[in-house]
Request: fold
Amino acid sequence: MIKLGSNLLILYLIVLLGTNVETVNAISKSEIKPPKKVCIEEFEIIMKEFNEKVLRDIVESFELDLSGYREYTFDELDLKLGEHIKNQYDKISLQQLFVGASNGSRRLFLKDGIDGNKGYFLYKRIDGNNVIKELEKKGNIWVVMYEEEKKASRIIPKSFDWNKCAKE
Reply:
């Protein structure tokens, strides 16, 4: 009888301790925060999806066909080491378009690249309205030839909880 009681007690302690170890492991695993680098990558994916959603909304509202156009970012318009400013008025005239606030990224599309003569500058205003600026190259400067704004809804990006990330 004593042997049976002690075996039951040992079995009970094993089950009890095993459950507590699993609980401790589960808690410690849930408290592990991903490194900041992983969070930054996840945030960049969310923002890329958001910016593509904004672009689709603008393209649909103006019924644009951007095939044959190449997108340029602000950074691609930066002067490179050794380039003289007097030969880069085309890039400088495009850079000023990126100044200002918008809902999502401001997007520049040029037909036949920087050496072409036609383009679009697209963005969503903070209030949600979509804006298109039609561009033409006059000499070596890009000029806004036409601007239109269409009523549209604001698009909100998915929220991202930076507190879930390790501080590093």
Q: What stands out?
A: The first helix runs from residue 2 to 31.
